[in-house]
Amino acid sequence: MQTTNVVHPAAHRAMLKDGVHIELSPRRVRTYFGGKLIADSDHVLLVYETKRPPAYWFPITDVRMEYLDRKDRSDGSADAIRWRLAVNDRVVENAARAYAIRAGDRAPLEDHLTFHWDQMDAWFEEDEEVFVHPRDPYTRVDTVHSSRHVRVEIGGVGLAETHRPVLLFETGLPTRCYIPKQDVRMDLLEPTSSVSRCPYKGVAHYWSGPVGDRMVQDIAWSYPAPIPECPKIENLISFYNERVDLHVNGVLQDRPITPFS
Q1: Nearest 5°: phi and psi at 153?
Q2: Mind listing the pLDDT tens digit for each residue in 42-75?
Q3: What span, in angstroms and rounded, lies between the C-alpha atoms of 216 and 213?
Q4: Is 207 left (phi over 0), alpha (psi -120 to 50) or beta?
Q5: Is the per-residue pLDDT at 4 higher than 50?
Q6: Alpha carbon of 153 to those of 41, 116, 251: distances in Å?
């Protein structure tokens, strides 16, 4: 099964800004590897750095350092400190990092380190698992019932038509139309093995759709069991605005330019 973790566009604010922004998170954060709790803290720092998604930095006192071995800076970097993580027979060479020089904007990172998100087995904010990256407190996801007339076509073939969409408004993304399966030509869609994870919605599964005599991969998705904050989209179908012809109240919408284009 293919797993696709896409950096959420809400992180672009941090990626595009110049410098470092650091704030104390009010959330308890834990991360696990190899069946062991590696870090557990209610004093984590939420850190935004240029060209990086947001990250949690743990006080070293809240990290199980017996599982970490500091590595020599063989890559020639005088700025980075890296650690190898080993639990029984599982080893990750570059699981954690910190800065050797912590001055200026980085001064609050003294005696802190961060883990590469994808190298760890699981992350939790309080008692809920979180995927891809920390939830950005400045991102909103709102779902609203609507009576707009929504029609989805691709290559002149109608894939869906409804007067009862759920509109999902998410910071940094185009408005998504979630459509009841009864209003979707499910007979024209083929399920794929693709899976993606979103820290704000949960785990999505995908379908491909027809264009002429071929199928276009992963143009539609659904959240069979969204996180509790997004119950309205459960089992509804949404299509990439970037890749289909989306008509709203009879008006063909422009295809937005996003990382999903």
Answers
A1: -130, 155
A2: 999 999 887 778 899 999 999 999 999 998 765 5
A3: 10
A4: beta
A5: no
A6: 48, 40, 13
